[in-house]
Design a protein that fits this description.
- The chain has a domain of about 50 residues.
- With about 80 residues, it is mainly alpha-helical.
- It contains 1 helix and no strands.
- Helix content is about 50%, strand content about 0%.
- Keywords: Membrane, Transmembrane, Transmembrane helix.
Length: about 80
């Protein structure tokens, strides 16, 4: 059994990892919420003041659309 861990040490390391997992998940959740709040605050306070440039344009843009043409079935 040289180079192998005893079954008890494997069980202990697994138990330790199981106990640490909720703390790591909650830490990740808190980190993501804080980053999201920072992004929202800078978005609302910044020069755009919360406007989304993708959807809000100052003037409508004209687009050309083709009109449908009648199709004649070929026999």
């Amino acid at each position: 059994m040289i180079g192998k861990d005893s079954p008890q040490s494997v069980i202990d390391s697994y138990r330790k990892r199981q106990q640490m997992l909720p703390f790591m998940i909650w830490g990740l959740v808190v980190l993501l919420v804080v980053v999201g709040l920072i992004i929202l605050i800078t978005w609302f306070v910044g020069p755009g003041k919360g406007s989304i440039a993708l959807f809000a344009s100052p003037t409508p843009t004209a687009t050309s659309t083709n009109t449908p043409t009648p199709t004649v079935p070929s026999a």
